[in-house]
Structure formats: C-alpha cells, structure tokens
Amino acid sequence: MLYTGLVVAIVFATLSVAMGNVRSAQKSGTPVFRKLFGGLFEQVYLFVHQMCTGTIGPHGRKYVPMILTVWLIIFVSNAVALFMPTSPTADLSFTLAMALMCVGYVQWEGIRAHGLIGHLKHFAGPKLPPAMFIVTMMIFVIEMISEVMKNVSLSLRLFGNIEGGHLAVTSMNQLGEAFYVPAGALILMPIKLMTVIVQAMIFTMLTCVYLALVTGNEDEH
User: What is the pTM of this model?
Assistant: First the structure.
C-alpha cells in the first residue's frame, strides 16, 4: 500500500505540474513543447491517442482517458522499481487487480456496444448450421476460457518482468560484493529501463486490442 500510495502521489504531482505548464504556455502564448513537463505529457498523450485510434479505430478516442490512466500507473510503478527494493507491479496481487479491471472493462464495453446477447454471440465464433451446434458450443467454451486466461497472461507477464528484474539485480549485486561493485545496478539498469517502458506499452496495447475485438462493429464517428 505504501508503494501504491507513492505511485499515485507521483502521478498526481507530475500531472499537476504539467497542467500548470500548459496553462502558463496558453497565457503567455509560448508553445507547450517548450515547457518541460507540459511538453513531455503532451507527447505521452499523443502517443496514447495514436495507440487507441490506430488499434481500435476512430471511436478509440473515447478510450484515451482510460488507457492513459492505466499507462501512467503502470509506467510510474515500473519506474519506482528502478530505485526501490519493490514496487506495486512487483506484486502479483496488484498486477492481477489491474488485469481484472482492464478485462472487466473490455467486457462492459462489449456489452454496451452490442448488448449482452450480441456480446455473448461474439464468443461463439462464426454462425454455423444448427446441425453443428456442438461445434458452436465447443468454440464458445474455448473462447470463454481464453477470455479468463487474459487476466493470467496480463498479470503474470507484468509481474514476472518487474519482479524478475529485482531478483536478477539482487543476485548480480551479491556476485559483485567481493569487489565492492554494484554489478547488478550497473549492468542491468539499461535493460530494466527498457522493460519499464516496454511493459507499460504491452499492457495498454493488449487492452486496446481486446477493446478493438469487442467493439469493432461500432459505427465509426
């Protein structure tokens, strides 16, 4: 809970500074990109916006706030792991909760887009003749299992990469103790930094893909 509170505090603090930069730029007529935090968060927003619209389609714009929030929480949590002995994303209960929230949100959006019956039909595969009802039911069961397993894959992937990085650094630091050199931090820091960015992107990108699959027939606006 302490590290989760730290992550939330960092997100709110940086967002407040960024919004202050944006307001300052608007009043002075200065381009936002010349303001450090304002320009940085402008690029983050554009990145997430492009991810949503490029993966989900034009109607993906309405999912930007949700995806941006998830990206920020995961990215900052991963970044905390670079400097702290643990982080929220190094806790399986946290990553599982994030996965359940995102997958549950996907189901809700699928129901909103097509109704409950229409959403359930999505898991039955292509429409087959009545004589192949058993095949349709088999497809439905397999798809439902696959949908549940999305929670497992999302949570374990994120947890495994972050916690694995901690364990690797600890092990290499122990090897370097004889030479008084923090070998793990020196050697693995670039790899961990890349993991911070990539894992946040993978989690949010997969959420966008899941949203695209269940809302793909929505009218494009």
Answer: 0.81
